[in-house]
UniProtKB/TrEMBL annotation, chain A:
InterPro entries: Beta-prop_EIPR1-like (IPR059104), EIPR1 (IPR040323), WD40/YVTN_repeat-like_dom_sf (IPR015943), WD40_repeat_CS (IPR019775), WD40_repeat_dom_sf (IPR036322), WD40_rpt (IPR001680). GO terms for biological process: protein ubiquitination. It comes from Amphibalanus amphitrite (Striped barnacle). This is EARP-interacting. Belongs to the WD repeat EIPR1 family. Residues 17-175 form the EIPR1-like beta-propeller domain.
UniProtKB/TrEMBL annotation, chain B:
This is Vacuolar protein sorting-associated protein 51 homolog. Pfam families: VPS51_Exo84_N (PF08700). It comes from Amphibalanus amphitrite (Striped barnacle). Acts as component of the GARP complex that is involved in retrograde transport from early and late endosomes to the trans-Golgi network (TGN). The lineage of its organism: Eukaryota, Metazoa, Ecdysozoa, Arthropoda, Crustacea. Residues 635-645 have a biased composition (Basic and acidic residues).
Amino acid sequence: MWGLTLATALFSSEDISSVQWQLMDGSQLLGVGEHQLTVWDLDTGRGAAAVSSEIPCPGRAQSALTGARWNPHQCCSQVAAACDTHVRGFDLRCGQQAWTVENADAQLVRDLDFNPNKQYYLATCGDDCRVKFWDIRKPTAPLKVLVDHSHWVWRVRFNHFHDQLVLTSSSDWRVLLTSAASLSSEPYGHLLDDDDDGPAQSGAQLADGQLACCEEHEDSVYAAEWSSADPWTYASLSFDGRLVVSRVPRQVKYKILL
Amino acid sequence: MAAPGGSSDAQRRARNAALKDYYGCKASSEMADNDLYNLNSPHFNPDMYLHQLIKESSLTDLMDTEANIYKQIQSLDSEMQTLVYENYNKFISATDTIRKMKVDFKKMEDEMERLAENMTHITAFSATVSDTLQVRRDEINKLSNTHVMLKKLQFLFELPAQLKDAIDKENYKQAVEYHLQSERVLEQYGTAPDTASLQGLRAESAQSITRLVAALQDRLQDDQATPEQIRESVQLLLQLGQPAEALCSRVIAHAQRRLAGDLAQLTSQVELARAAADSDRPAELRLHLPKDVLEFVDVDCSSFLSNLSLFVTSYKELFLEPKSRCPEAASRLSDCVRSQMDSLLSAVDSRLSLESAAGGAAVLARALDRLYRRLQASAAVLPEGDAYVRAGMELIGGATERRCRQSLSQLCAHLQQSLSAVRQALVVPAPAPSSAEPPPLAEQLATFLGGLAEQIRATVTDLKAFIQPELSFGVQARFRNTFCRQHVRETVVVGFFRHFVETCRGFCDAAGGEKTSPSVLLLLSRACRDLDTSTVHYLMNFVDDLLRIEDKSGLTPLADINSEVRAAGQQLINHFVRVQGLAVSQMLRKSVATRDWQHANEPRSVRSVMKRVVEELAMMDAQVGSVYEEGAARWEQHNSSDSSRRPYHGPGSQRQRHEWSSYAPSQVDSGLVANIQKLFSERIEIFAPVEFSKVSILTGIIKIALKTLLECVRLKTFSKFGLQQIQVDVYYLQVNLWRFIADEKLLHGLLDEVLGSAIHRCLQPALMEFSVVEALCDRG
């Protein structure tokens, strides 16, 4: 409308509920259909796109895929999809299922996110009101379970820079900022700082637990995202159309930085 | 002494006066004064008396006194005369008597003189007789000596034959007596020169004695010999001068062999009991049924202990009394006894550990009592006997503790049983909501709780057998204390409640909770609540009373158990609400997810799934109602029946609203109204803890279900007819659900939001006319 031109049109055999750019160089696009994942190769120079692979997700006919994510590690050669109560990981190179987390949620997995800085670490959330952290090498038991929400959790996101900060939004009208320092890629703060004043610093370390609770929304919060520009800013969107942009509390910020 | 001298003087005087008063003597000066003027006193002074009288008395007094005294004097005179007369008579009779006696004495004197003369004669004769007999007496003396000598010699010559005879007849005692006598004789004559024959004799008798010793030693080796025989043999051997040391080790060895037999009996019983407990064993082994524990203690242990005591007594008599015959005798005995007692106690311990909980505590208690009594009785005899009594006490403590643990596991097993019974009973008849008979939940609850309480009571009463006053060990304060407080109260009763709470928690866990039927959860939650309010209190009091536990310090307080149970109940009921809510919401979610709302037909009736939901909720209501009370007063009944027919006036577009305006009088902008309402309404906690009441529970379930409906509706896109179908459904729910819920506002709020969301998600938002909706719902 405002000078935008259609670069290319993507076609799929199913309804697409969401798409995601590949995280490395944006040369690929992932579409989540009802029962299959579609990956397109983009040729930005020519403005053309071609279906690179279509991965059918095994499961019952009624259960549609609720979401999928690129795995930021291993050159984005993996995607993971939330399907019913399971999480399935697919290797794009062969189009096969590579791993699976069975019963990641008692009811339905709503969303998942990979830890951007720590390989194999994954967070899921869903209808059992819990946020669970997994190591996909050992998918039998969660590493950690958060039970702070009182209704379905719709979104879970790691902070891209400080992955101890986990953002969750739920249909109990709340957005929670939680610290999962024990599972983060920098569990003891910056290692360099330890040399200067080791023991004195340890008291000020960020512990696991809830850091902030955003109660500004007056309806279910369906989306929450970190800012890609500023690691301390996040936004959340609720059903009634309210978009709330919040900051990480100052003390938390100092604790992480200092 | 801080008291001043004056006061101490006064004290002394007072003391003296008191003493004098007591002994009846007056102060001497006073007494002298009084005596001088007293007519009857020995110190009477007539002059002073007269002087005083004249000085102090008037004339008439004097005259009176004079007459008085005169009269007294006269009476005294006459008295004196009578006395003199009487005495005179007596004196005269005495004089007569004395005269008579003088005559008699003279006669006696003559007779005495004659007696003396005769005696001298007798003495003279006797001297002559003894002189003549002197020679004969010496001869007789010599002859009798020779006789004795000859007798001894004869004995010596007969000795070998007699010895042999006695040994052949096994009359060892006699033989030893002979030998000892001959020994003495031979010693006497051992120095005599003519001893060739004597030496022969000696050799012969020595031979016999060797045989005798050998025979006795043989007897010591013989396992069949009775303790009496052993004792006799040892005594004889000791008399024969055998070394005590070797003997005592032989005796100990013999006793050990004999006791080993008893011990083998004991261990075979233990083995039998083990075989019986181990039902895998082949049948022929189990043919020999083991004795029960009472008999085991009564017969086997008792016989072992009495044999041991018998042995110890005879050993002591032989070697230790009155003085120790060999230095190591005492220590050897105690070593032997220690090892024997150790093996006995370990055998008893292993037998007791095999005792299963099946056969009442009373038998075990009696068996332990017997054991303890036995040990106490033997303690007097055995060296270090007290140590064995203590060890026995420890054994008893261990056995009772084990018993308590068994009781606990029995209780737990019973809990499991009754739980599965409840589960089965609840699963089999699925009662239709319309059926007249009350659901069996309340009944099951009563039997479940009753069974639980009864079981605990029975167990504790059973365990009380261990502290009955007639049991010898039961009266010991220390045992009683640990047993009652630590074992019965803490381990069994409190432990059971803890186990119960754990079991309940297990049902709430994600893993175990999936399979549990909701009615079991409901029943258990109610059971927890009943336990909390009354049963725990009652049972703990019962236990404390029964065992007379007064000092509660250091024990788990009642409040702790209560709060644990209460927490478990809360967890269960929350879980119940969650499970049921999820069940209903699953139905709703499927019904919304699987329908194509964009191409729906015009609604003709309420969707059947809504009816099913309402039916399901009615069933849950009946189920919960059979167990829980109504709860907080419902949102005013008459109001709600009216307001339940309230039309929808949620956020709608301008176009539809005029159709509703007749029902909703003050609608300026219903969207705004709804938003303002939202501003003031409370945030709804969906999976919030509920109270223990029917209304609260049902409210919780409905909240979860409607929230799911809301979220599912928001994921869909609706056509006009799809929206209208939702409208019909929502109205149907509104009409039918108000009776289950505590706060009607909450229901309306949620339903409004559902419809509101559906309107938002609708391509052509056009609602149906309210009367049509009403008609459709009424028809349904």
